[in-house]
TrEMBL record:
SUPFAM superfamilies (UniProt xref): Cytochrome P450
Keyword terms, alphabetized: Heme, Iron, Membrane, Metal-binding, Monooxygenase, Oxidoreductase, Transmembrane, Transmembrane helix
Database matches in Gene3D superfamilies: Cytochrome P450
Organism whose genome encodes this protein: Salix dunnii
Organism domain of life: Eukaryota
UniProt cofactor(s): heme
Protein name: Cytochrome P450
Amino acid sequence: MEKAQKEVSQLFDDIRTVPEETNLQDLKFLKLIIKETLRVHPSLPVIPRECRKRCEVHGYGIDVKSKVLINEWAIGRDPSYWNEAERFYPERFIDVSADFKGGSFEFIPLGAGKRMCLGISFATTYIEFTLAQMLYHFDWKLADGLKPENLDMIESVGGTLKRKQGLELIPISYRSLLLPSFPVLITILLFISIFWTRTKLIGSNDSSPNPPPGPMKLPFIGNIHQLLHPLFHHRLRDLAKKFGPVMQLQIGEVPTVIISSSEAAKEVLKTQEINFVDRPHLLAESILFYNRKGFSFAPYGDYWRELRKISILELLSAKRVRSFKSIREEEVSDFIGSIYAKEGSPINLSRMIFSLGNGIIARASIGKKCKTQEAFLPIVDELSLALGGLNMADVFPSSRFFRMVSRVRSRLERMHREADEMLDSIISERRANSGLASKMAKNEAEDLLGALLNLQDHGNLESQLTTSSIKATILEMFTGGGETSSTALEWAMSELIKNPRVMEKAQKEVRQVFDNIRNLKYVF
């Protein structure tokens, strides 16, 4: 009797617990859903590059310092590569070998080549685990009686391609284990400003003899007037249908080449990768990230190669990602518990998802929850918004007027000071910890900050890992790691709500796998 009562009690206590991460390998359909989500909703719709050496792409001359934007959003929806390209149909990947690891250029949501996302393992594990828990624990319906087919899928313009409106849903507990605006022009310029930097004027006598085709330009503003669309990447796709997969625009004074086919993308990201390995040099990134001292924005060279090696072998290795398993499970458990607390009532799931992503990144990067971490997250949010901000002085680099009237630099410098002071406090607190020295000596640092400090003191690196480099790397993890993964998760839930057939199939798989594991545990 006592043994039976204990088992029954444990069974009911476990109903709201989170199944372990190790069960994810059995969720085959869930993985297809995530692939399909990244195809139609890449977190970053375009991949920015800068030409380092004059070359040709598809027979067109590309000048040095030209900005190159690869419209991965358009490629992922191109009917030349995808049947029923606008349809959300995860099963397409059963018979398609394309993956998002940089080898299939019709499917590059995380980039490709030397600068592709190194945090793929971290991101996919977080997305798969969190999505599985939401599908396992809850049934979902739209608030206010809205029908799934009427759910809007409008995107927002910014650093990442989020939903314009937060996803408002009503969670209903799964009980199978229980007894019975800005102006349009300004908006577009906000987005454009992410992807280019100072360069010589497009009308230079040193330009390539056979530039890519493109629409007619106006004096001073170039093609800005032709980009008056609230979603920049949509407009680029429309123009590419007329002018071809390799097209040149002039954004103010800045020559910008638009790539809209997998074949041309392969030329830029693989065949001639060394010519396009640099990212554009942007004012915001230079100020906020310590003159581009982190891996994501550093110029190509020995220092960048050293950072890449550190990232692959130390910061984002499979072993390091596995070491964060308990963090993910604890944070997701709290996340699921907070949804249970609001069961039956409308919740802003988008807000909760982004809060979860920030929490996981914070603990993986700088350690346990603390007041300093809580104060740091709002600063990071402001930095993320600034990366999608307007900088007219860069659109018109020769204009002294824009340099004088622009207030962007002072705002960026103020944000940098606030972030720098907070990071100084976090690092000083870590070094002052009495157990840190022995921990670092044994190379047992659990979070990314500990790993970086350990490398700084004991790594014997070819290039010096300065404190500024450490700060820039931590900031990049916050601004890049959490937001892009959470954006993908938000869109995955949106597509599942809009496509009940896919939702039902996914929940059936998740619940069958997790319930079988639970039941097996009680048998033994």
